[in-house]
Amino acid sequence: MSLPRIMVVCGFGLGSSLVLKMTLDAVLLDAGIGAETFCSDEASAKGEKFDLVVTSRQFEHLLKDCQKPIVLIQNFLNKDEVKEKCLPVVLALIK
Amino acid sequence: MNPVRIGDTLTPDLIELQVGAEDWRSAIRSAGELLFRGGICEAGYIEAMIEAVERYGPYMVIAPGIALVHSRPEDGALTTGLSLITLSNPVDFAPDGTSPVSLVIALSAATNDWHVEILKQLAEALMDRENRDVLISATSKVQVMELFSLGKRAGKVCEFA
To answer: Which pLDDT score is estimated for A90?
Structure first.
């Protein structure tokens, strides 16, 4: 199957989400999982195609109707938190 | 040529340590002021950063104690760069007291792409707890610059190809 598309969302799609995407990329690399990760901002996130959203709780409401899994992260620099919360969801996607 | 390492761009005039800020707005203003004085952003960019937090909440607190504040390129980012301040007393970015911040990094990202490279280095440095502690308790700007400069702590500040 094609690689899962993981969208990382923040307000502008160029600061916080980029940092979180880097942490996520590192976690995926460590786990040997291939995925397409990209950043989006709150205005355009809804129009994107994705299989999973990773963001902070402030943006959850924007995507509550997306019918895709949403993972909420508190500490964008914490690989352990990102790993614990994201990996099970990503693994379920590619199963 | 654009600098591609934080150590090249984070000069002493873009660092201020143990700033006394009364609230998160004044903390952002202090960090933004450094960008403005450095010719990196327009004055309006500072208020745009504050409005971003007002609008979206404290999500720019990317890790406990650390805020990465910024706005859109079109809000007055003249070039790409960052400033860094530490606070003598933490200020809270959330009304409910859940986001105390001691380190504020203000980012101006112009339309070019090398802010990606800078954020990579920043994230890599800040992922290390020891580095975070050094930054938050730094008493000299040299300590901050050394942490981000290639060679001094190259094992900590990861290298990217």
So the answer is: 96
CA dist B113 to A14, A69, B5, B67, B105, Å?
Answer: 10, 30, 13, 21, 18
Active site residue B115: no
Report the sign of the C-alpha dihedral through residues B148, B136, A57, B33, in that order. negative
* Number of residues assigned to chain B: 161
In chain A, how long is the greatest CA-to-CA distance?
32
Residues of chain B positioned with their CB less than 8 A from the CB of A76:
62-63
A-proximal residues of B, 10-49, CB under 8 Å: none
List the single range of A90-94, B52-56, B104-108, B109-113 with lowest mean pLDDT: B109-113
Residue B116 pLDDT greater than 70, yes or no:
yes
Q: Write down the catalytic residue from B14, B49, B60, B70.
A: B70
Whether the complex's predicted ipTM surpasses the cut of 0.85: yes
Structure confidence at residue B156 (pLDDT): 45
Question: For the whole prediction, is pTM greater than 0.95?
Answer: no
Question: If you measure CA to CA, which chain A residue comes closest to B123?
Answer: A19
> Would you call B138 an interface residue with chain A, using a CB distance cutoff of 8 Å?
no
